[in-house]
Description:
Layout: H1 2-8, H2 12-20, E1 31-34, E2 37-39, H3 43-57, H4 62-71, H5 73-94, H6 101-108, H7 112-120, H8 133-147, H9 161-183, H10 189-198, H11 200-224
Antiparallel strand pairs: 1-2
Amino acid sequence: MSELAERSGVSAGTIKHYLREGLLDDGGEVVRTSRNMAWYPPAFVERIRLIKRLQEERYMPLRVIKDVMDSDPARAAALLELEDRIRERAVAAAENGRVDPDEAVRRYEVPRNVLDRLGHLGVLTPATEGYDADDLRIIAAIARFRAGGYDERLGFTVFDTLRYREALGPLVQEEVRTLLDRLAGEVDVDRAVEIIASGAEPLRELIGAVHSKMLRAELRRHGGD
């Protein structure tokens, strides 16, 4: 048990809890040599790590994890591997070509205090090195809004951006669940990451087009009231 705990990075107490919950041993894999001594198969190391990750990263309760482990543990492992690769690519992309705040102000002519407020609201997430590509797209959009007349004199403020973030939150969560569920275990990880990356631009266009269509329909509805 102590060796299993060391190799898996999980405490002996947690492993014993997994055993009690039926997450590891189906009755024939553990070789018990005495009341307080047993040998565990090497495959338990990766299985324990997978269970812990499903708990901590997917927030799965143990009863759900047991169903996953009983039905398709390979798919669960593929799901986590896919998430890791997507996260790695996202981090690498974010660190590529950052722009410092002073340059962003000069380039887009958006006041620094506006950018700072957007940062406090979590709409922008600048790092020490500055804004990433997605931040810059948001800043460019804010600049175009302001140039078109959407400014503080008419009551438009940075807080208006929150309604879009709040509306998109559930949509993005559902999108990620759907993508991961359909891709994990169906295609190799590299291809899955490529598919997700290739959908980013058309998805932005789709959301913009649907929003524009719905906006016109709503304006017509108000015009007919």
